[in-house]
């Protein structure tokens, strides 16, 4: 547990004012009502276990007020110092997550196999912090904080969700992502590097295993646009010296362009700061969901094109990237997904699919990029079929720009 003096330091308080009240709420809840007998037995064991663990963890803390059981719900009461409620809530979240995760794991491990198998209960955990301006902490004030903690802990994964939300807020605030660049090679000019795709990487993987997890969570939290803009800024900042004829491919979610707050002009000002121009940039449209409004996306792309940018559609042949997207958006490049390219020299059906995409691209004056090249045989096959550009580990792994440039 963080030392008591640290929580005071978080708030810049050197006195012993107790201006906030904090609650950690814990409750075992069944997914159904079929196993009430098993649940009663579990609750009896849990009460003994939880009281022992909570007292051991918090009894020496000057902030600890005590335990309260309301039926089968446990409330751990804390008196917190005066300060910013958000900082105090963050501290309490960390404290609760650390202890309750360990408690849940050890408690379940300590159950006999029959009890474990017959009980489908989940530990719900919630926290709440509220100002106590009067400093009296009467029963009504505690009751209001307890209600807030119950609301927070309604879902079994509420604690994990809150910790992830804090993590992504910190990532965005402190700009804790960085770009790496994977070369895209021309197959018609003896392996000359045509451009680089910028890929986002996370500094800390405590809560997000990688960029995909990060962007999926951002989408759920309504932070897609903010994170996407940060990734674009980082991509341009890190691309220090493109050759005049090289391209920088930047991933942009199609759904971003449907956002009313979307502002294409921000990218142009960034490029100007780095003495780059829009003709260097290809916006690589990624579809994590089907596009709801092609009209809005097309309008945004027309604005980009009028400034000199080019457009690519990513992951063609997989997921939501469809023929409709190609026809509606009229990109400059098709990036054929790894699922089509992998072992294409051994799979006649994949060869037919790629051939069809190449013919469509020729009719629409679109260049084709084969993604995910890992074998010499794959490279030879796509070159033989007339693909103009290729990308993959065989040709170069993602790396910081200054170490990747040939």
UniProtKB/TrEMBL annotation:
<protein>
    <submittedName>
        <fullName>EAL domain-containing protein (Putative c-di-GMP-specific phosphodiesterase class I)</fullName>
    </submittedName>
</protein>
<dbReference type="InterPro" id="IPR035919">
    <property type="entry name" value="EAL_sf"/>
</dbReference>
<dbReference type="InterPro" id="IPR001633">
    <property type="entry name" value="EAL_dom"/>
</dbReference>
<dbReference type="GO" id="GO:0071111">
    <property type="term" value="F:cyclic-guanylate-specific phosphodiesterase activity"/>
</dbReference>
<dbReference type="Pfam" id="PF00563">
    <property type="entry name" value="EAL"/>
</dbReference>
<dbReference type="InterPro" id="IPR050706">
    <property type="entry name" value="Cyclic-di-GMP_PDE-like"/>
</dbReference>
<feature type="domain" description="EAL">
    <location>
        <begin position="157"/>
        <end position="406"/>
    </location>
</feature>
